[in-house]
Amino acid sequence: MKLMFAADIHGSLPATERLLHLFAQSGARWLVILGDVLNHGPRNALPDGYAPAEVAARLNEQAQRIIAVRGNCDSEVDQMLLTFPMMAPWQQVLTAHQRLFLTHGHLFGADNQPPLSPGDILIYGHTHLPVAEKRDGIYHFNPGSVSIPKGGNEASYGMLDNNVLRVIALNDQRVIAEIAINP
């Protein structure tokens, strides 16, 4: 299973267009969006190319291939623009060997984990910081932010391919962080 992950788009049209271009080239079956899709939120500056209605239109073109969760900046008004469901606070994807727990990161995350089993993968956004590591038997993965990176990091997204989780720079495709997962 090949999956692409994006978090914290925050209404940036250039970031969305770049992400969708990379998604089309990636061979990934699903684009998993980890919340904060359209709204920039009161704590963030406006991202480059802030155009939430256009971001919604572009994402809707791939609606049948998107799995999404709600972020702390997402609302019912945002859902009215999007044709794929994105109001669930978390989702789970089950593989033959492990569970992927998908969430934004403000309700469940590194500091407030849901009940998980060793080998499961906690996948979240919210912090805008890339993470690919194993803690106490649980894999933690944060693809960073495609539009408003923090901590001196660059815009990034994530991939799960051949049992490897990678955080990849949005602009130059450089691997920022990675971890192999044991199925």
Automatic annotation (TrEMBL):
GO molecular function, one term: hydrolase activity
Cofactor(s) it depends on: a divalent metal cation
Keyword annotations of the record: Metal-binding
EC number of the protein: 3.1.4.-
A Pfam match: Metallophos_2
Domain Calcineurin-like phosphoesterase, residue spans: 1-161
Entry keyword Kinase: no
UniProt entry tagged with the keyword ATP-binding: no
InterPro entries assigned to the protein according to its UniProt record, in alphabetical order: Calcineurin-like_PHP_lpxH, Metallo-depent_PP-like, MPP_YfcE, Phosphodiesterase_MJ0936/Vps29
Family from the record: Belongs to the metallophosphoesterase superfamily. YfcE family.
Protein name, UniProt field: Phosphoesterase
Taxonomic source organism: Superficieibacter electus
